[in-house]
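@here heads up, posting the sequence + SMILES for the magnesium ion run so it's all in one place. Ping me if the SMILES looks off, I pulled it from an old spreadsheet.
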Amino acid sequence: MDASQPEGPQVKLLDLIEAMRRLGIAAQPNEPGAGSLTDARGAALAILTPDGTFLSANRSAAALFGYSCADLAGKQLVDMAPDDLHAALASELSMSAHSDFHSFSVLLGSRTGHPTRLVLHQQSVPTNQDGRSALLTLFEEPLIREPGLVDAAPLSEASARDCVTYLTMGQQKERQRLAAELHDGLGQALTLVKLMAEDARMRIRRGQVDDAAQLLDATVLRIRETIGEVRQICGELRPLMLDRLGLPAALSSLCRRVERGTENMSVVFNCDVDDDDVPEHLKADMFRVAQEALNNTVKHAAATEITLGFRRIAGGLLLTIQDNGVGYENRPLPTEDACATGLGLIGMQHRVESHGGTFLISSSGTGGTLVSAAWTL
Ligand SMILES: Nc1ncnc2c1ncn2[C@@H]1O[C@H](COP(=O)(O)OP(=O)(O)OP(=O)(O)O)[C@@H](O)[C@H]1O
Ligand SMILES: [Mg+2]
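bot reply: prediction finished. Complex structure tokens:
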């Protein structure tokens, strides 16, 4: 095994992509009242061991439970369920571990203890440990349409109007989560910084200058962390640019920002699409796919060139992100490294395929990586 890889069950990227595709097909809603929310963070995805321990979770899943990705890793799903549901949940997990695909609904509590009914779709993925599978898990909050939001059409028709409804509901959920993050995360961090600064001031007045200096060093560190949190939250909100600029201009601005933020990497944007050509309910997904693929290139590819293409094709639109970097053929996913959640790629795939699009990745050590997403209009 590669010494840089952590011990424990590992999942191959290509197996995970295949599992996501199978899960996407199997978890298609076929009853009125079922469906997934279009949260700007995308689907809530995690990889669990067969007994329900979180190996890895994306930011959506972490936000759903009120944790950071790192804090969620290692937690037990069973501990989040009310005591009287432990046995039932354990038996559902065992069914998932012994079948290819399994879906069930369960009441799970967030960090604050607030219980939410969630539908879990689980698809087994092979790991490097003989005969052991991990469970790729998609958490869905069953939709409850707000009366009067739109008049009741069957959800199974999956009309554009339904998509807009999901989008609106997803945005509302996201606002609630951002408000909670601002309150619990940023609000508390700033309160702490204020207390530390007041403490340092008091020590200076008492002549305890060395103590005060130490405290101020710690305060600066805390302020740096808080700036990081603000950046993170702004990143979540970035699609707001879509409303102001429209999608092509927002993509162009994303490319310029990536280029400015890196050394020796040129980012070319080729676009022949007008904002009016793009259906409203697909814009945030398209922006997020481009953003994640560009982030991946910056983080992992060691590339010198990226080309983002956004083009009209017969009957649809095609988004491509091509880099000339190192590629990721057959690379395992570092599931136990809580800082690398490793679910960005399949999150993109889910965004595209859940709206009927086609998602393809090809990657090689010599040709770099090409991510492409096509939507039929
Ligand atoms: N353009 C790329 N070039 C080379 N390797 C890549 C590229 N994109 C992804 N990878 C590899 O695929 C892995 C999975 O990517 P993915 O986006 O799912 O996770 P991540 O970027 O590690 O974490 P996050 O959940 O924060 O996105 C990465 O860890 C990296 O090894
Ligand atoms: Mg990523």
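MO: The two ends are 46 Å apart (CA to CA).
MO: One more: The longest strand covers residues 115-126.
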